[in-house]
Design brief:
The longest helix has 19 residues. The two termini are 37 Å apart. With 355 residues, the chain is an alpha+beta fold. Helix 1 packs antiparallel against helix 2, helix 1 packs parallel to helix 3 and helix 2 packs antiparallel against helix 3. The model has no long low-confidence stretch (mean pLDDT 87). The strands form five sheets. The protein has a five-stranded antiparallel β-sheet.
Length: 355
């Protein structure tokens, strides 16, 4: 059991540093992982602190953790982990992802893109069931707009992997890692006019969305080679251990790996929804989320999902989606076309420059 937790610590160290096996100035996380697998003892601890083992024989897990801590103390200053670059950026789904003009001439194409991404029932979507905390226990169909996209940090390309052009935004590929500090979702042209009838165009003032990374995190090694490294991040809930008493240790049938945990060791933590705000055209810190599930994740990920449930827009989820896309209903049953004009994703990031 101790080896499992030490292994998780080494995996976290490997993700944070991104060092390669060929780097000689500090130990890469993969080296610690192999040592942990070989360890057969706890090692030496003094006042609860792991100590480097200087004798003969198996140095144990404590020695590995002590060396990992010593290397981290060097790495965090050498590569700038203790003094990162802070940046704020907004990205337009309409222009930067789907390449649709922001002028009125592009409204029909934008509406069609949103319509193409409507799903009839989130409950039937594997991604939603696996990664999202449900907003209702109702078994009724829950329609939503589900937009998948990927991101990248490559020279000559914008954030969504499109060739860089006028008005685009992109992160700096000379940094080894660009990670999330806070996130925000903004709706441009969102209508919150009060009305209680079927012909109005108003939507709920505080819509909720899911923004989830489900692909592979990509970062560059901080060393001079800047080699790409890939991580399939599993956001794991660590179970609380039972209090271990003397009677447990005296019980010959007691097995730590099976009997000391209260729940499954590999349980996946799911994402809650985030509030989406009205686009004011400028950065407002109060309109961002310091989501603990996203903090520290790389903004470069091979697969994201933005999920906008219709039920958070209006009590009638289908009408909410129609108003969101096409605007208010006219007396003759048509729509006035004044739906949402853009969806913007905001990231506040911190970047490590490497060497």
């Amino acid at each position: 059991m101790a080896a499992r937790y030490a292994y998780l610590a080494a995996k976290a160290y490997d993700y944070e540093t991104g060092l390669l096996d060929t780097d000689n100035s500090a130990s890469a996380g993969t080296r610690f992982l192999s040592d942990i697998v070989k360890a057969r003892s706890l090692g030496v601890l003094r006042d609860g602190e792991p100590q480097v083992f200087g004798g003969e024989g198996d140095p144990g897990l404590a020695d590995i953790l002590a060396r990992m801590k010593a290397d981290w103390d060097v790495v965090k200053t050498r590569f700038g982990y203790n003094n990162p670059d802070i940046e704020t950026s907004r990205f337009s789904l309409r222009t930067e992802l789907f390449r649709i003009s922001p002028s009125a001439s592009g409204d029909v194409a934008w509406q069609q893109v949103l319509e193409d991404h409507v799903v009839e029932d989130l409950n039937q979507l594997d991604i939603y069931r696996r990664y999202c905390r449900p907003f209702t226990d109702s078994t009724n169909a829950q329609p939503a707009i589900v937009i998948p996209f990927s991101t990248c940090i490559e020279f000559g390309y914008n954030f969504f992997g499109q060739p860089l052009c006028g008005g685009d935004n992109a992160y700096d590929p000379s940094h080894s890692a660009t990670r999330i500090r806070s996130v925000g979702i903004w709706f441009t042209g969102y209508n919150t006019t009060f009305n209680t009838n079927d012909t109005g165009g108003g939507l709920a003032n505080e819509p909720r969305v899911y923004l989830i990374p489900v692909g592979v995190d990509i970062k560059r090694s901080p060393t001079d080679t800047a080699e790409l490294r890939y991580w399939d991040v599993f956001d794991q809930a660590l179970p609380l251990p039972y209090n271990i008493g003397e009677s447990d240790l005296d019980d010959p049938t007691w097995i730590p790996v099976f009997d000391s945990l209260t729940e499954n060791f590999g349980k996946l933590r799911r994402y809650a929804s985030l509030r989406a705000y009205h686009d004011r055209g400028q950065f407002v810190e109060e309109e961002t989320h310091n989501n603990a599930r996203l903090i520290g994740r790389s903004v470069w990920n091979t697969q994201w999902y933005l999920i906008i449930p219709g039920g958070t827009l209006l009590s009638d989820p289908w009408e909410g989606i129609q108003r969101f896309i096409y605007g208010a209903r006219n007396p003759d049953g048509t729509r006035n076309g004044n739906g949402i004009r853009d969806i913007k994703i905001f990231f506040q990031t911190y970047s490590i420059w490497g060497e």
